[in-house]
Design goal:
The structure is a single chain. Helix 5 packs across helix 6. By secondary structure, the chain is mainly α. This is Histone H2B type W-T-like. It comes from Castor canadensis (American beaver).
């Protein structure tokens, strides 16, 4: 009986909403201000479904920011991807341990920063955190 009443209330709710209610409406005012205040967009590599958790798409983009004209082989990108994943896993693990030691159920930004300082060399950790 309770399930039937929930189904009926869900049906009436969806009947009350039309397509016009679900699509955001643009006014001339918002359209003209957005054109004048648009900032240049930076192209970021897109995450495509089925690619898993690989970061390989980001390495050429970051390299291009630092050194133009250089490229990375597929083997190099695979090695870098593995290294970055290992580093992030280590940071997450250490931050989790620090959070448990502090009797917190949530990893905080300071836990991440402390983990970075513990795991990475001083110069690298300072650049990563600041």
């Amino acid at each position: 009986m309770a399930k039937q009443s929930l189904d009926k209330s869900a049906e009436t709710t969806t009947e009350m909403l039309s397509e016009e209610d679900l699509v955001p409406q643009e006014t001339e005012e918002t359209n003209s201000t957005s054109q004048t205040q648009e900032k240049p967009r930076h192209h970021h590599p897109h995450h495509h479904p089925g690619c898993g958790d690989s970061l390989e798409a980001y390495f050429p983009w970051v390299l291009k920011m630092c050194q133009r004209g250089l490229t990375l082989s597929q083997e190099t990108m695979g090695i870098m991807d593995s290294c970055v994943h290992d580093m992030l896993d280590g940071i997450a693990s250490e931050a989790g341990h620090l959070s448990c030691q502090a009797n917190h159920s949530t990893i905080t930004a300071s836990d991440i920063q402390k983990a970075v300082h513990l795991l990475l060399p001083r110069e690298v950790s300072n650049k990563a955190v600041h």
